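Action item from last meeting closed. Structure (371 res):
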């Protein structure tokens, strides 16, 4: 993970209203040269300045479409890397705080993933193994995915991408015998279950153990090999919380992100990406009651935007993504003021050879998602 050097105290000590006024002034000055993208987990004081908001799929699509010269990504490092991979010639991608990483993305190292792919291929007599890589991953891992004939996915389209990987080549798929799904074990298992597969079709590959901690027999039998990785925010939701909320508020519907464990997803009424959760709650009838298993900034905003409904976080402790939270008004103002002085700071720049291979994996996903 990269470290953000401290920014000047005049930014960190500036009152909120002055920060907001100056960010708005910079936006005005930079005009159509600037596009600010904001993920749903961003705090309100940043999110309000986004030109486009969305989940990771929607933001990848937006970043590929915008003609703005400067893309300021209010999200985490892997999102800004994806924007840099998809950018057009002359565009520049900026992440306001370089330490806004994603701990899940750090759980899969490209060399370890390549070792796993080679092992599976060897054990399974050259079977066709395709990596399907959640966008919450490093550019190196996306590049490896592209080189191995695989594709990226997001929590909005994981099922579509698993279907694509397993479909025969005659039918426009990748014709895989097996999928190595990474880096989130839970998204992968929840997706396999939604497709009708069972626990016996999935095994977990632990990169910290020899041969992933798996026997040859287990690798041969499995359809899905799940990388042992997780999101620390979503892994904290429990079945006990689901049960407690149902007792506290009879008639409440529970919707969770698919990065939650399979037990939590099964205990909930629905699951979906951040964008799918927003759609479900917004489309529900007045007076509907919802408990939501995802990041707190998004849930609070959803509650505020749906005053005719009861909307709460599933857990009692607020589930905050500390990485997303690093993007704050002082850092946003700093990068914008530097741009106004013709200076680019915090540029995210993926080396061209890595970007070219990673783009293949991202574009396979965007093609299947209708872009
Ligand atoms: P979405 O794909 O729903 O935007 O999720 C991104 C993420 O990081 C969830 O933890
Ligand atoms: Fe990564 Fe989890 Fe934060 Fe999403 S919520 S950015 S997966 S740490």
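Sequence:
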């Amino acid at each position: 993970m990269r470290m953000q050097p401290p920014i000047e105290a005049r930014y960190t000590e500036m009152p909120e209203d002055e920060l907001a006024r100056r960010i708005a002034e910079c936006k005005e000055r930079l005009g159509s040269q600037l596009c600010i993208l904001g993920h749903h987990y961003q705090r309100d004081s940043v999110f309000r300045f986004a030109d486009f908001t969305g989940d990771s799929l929607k933001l990848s699509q937006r970043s590929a479409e915008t003609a703005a010269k400067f893309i300021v990504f209010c999200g985490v490092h892997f999102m800004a890397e994806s924007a840099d991979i998809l950018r057009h010639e002359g565009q520049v991608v900026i992440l306001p705080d370089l330490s806004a990483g994603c701990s899940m993305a750090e759980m899969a190292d490209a060399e370890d993933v390549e070792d796993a792919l080679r092992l599976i291929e060897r054990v399974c007599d050259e079977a066709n193994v395709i990596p399907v890589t959640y966008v919450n991953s490093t550019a190196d891992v996306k590049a490896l995915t592209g080189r191995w004939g695989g594709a990226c996915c997001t929590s909005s389209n994981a099922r579509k991408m698993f279907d694509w990987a397993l479909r025969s080549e005659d039918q426009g798929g990748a014709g895989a015998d097996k999928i190595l799904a990474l880096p989130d074990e839970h998204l992968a298992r929840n997706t396999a279950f939604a497709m009708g597969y069972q626990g016996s079709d999935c095994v977990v590959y632990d990169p910290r153990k020899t041969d992933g901690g798996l026997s040859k027999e287990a690798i041969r039998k499995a359809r899905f090999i799940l990388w042992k990785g997780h999101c620390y925010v979503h892994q904290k939701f429990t079945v006990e919380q689901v049960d407690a909320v149902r007792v506290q508020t009879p008639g409440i519907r529970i919707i969770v992100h698919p990065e939650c464990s399979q037990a939590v997803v099964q205990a909930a009424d629905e699951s979906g990406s951040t964008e799918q959760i927003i759609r479900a709650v917004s489309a529900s009838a007045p007076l509907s009651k919802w408990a939501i298993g995802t990041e707190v900034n998004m849930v609070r905003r959803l509650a505020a935007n749906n005053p005719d409904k009861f909307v709460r976080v599933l857990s009692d402790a607020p589930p905050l993504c500390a990485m997303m939270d690093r993007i704050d008004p002082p850092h946003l103002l700093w990068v914008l003021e530097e741009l106004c002085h013709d200076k680019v700071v915090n540029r995210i720049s993926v080396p061209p050879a890595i970007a070219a291979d990673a783009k293949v994996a991202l574009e396979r996903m965007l093609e299947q998602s209708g872009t």
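Note appended to the action item: The longest strand covers residues 34-39.
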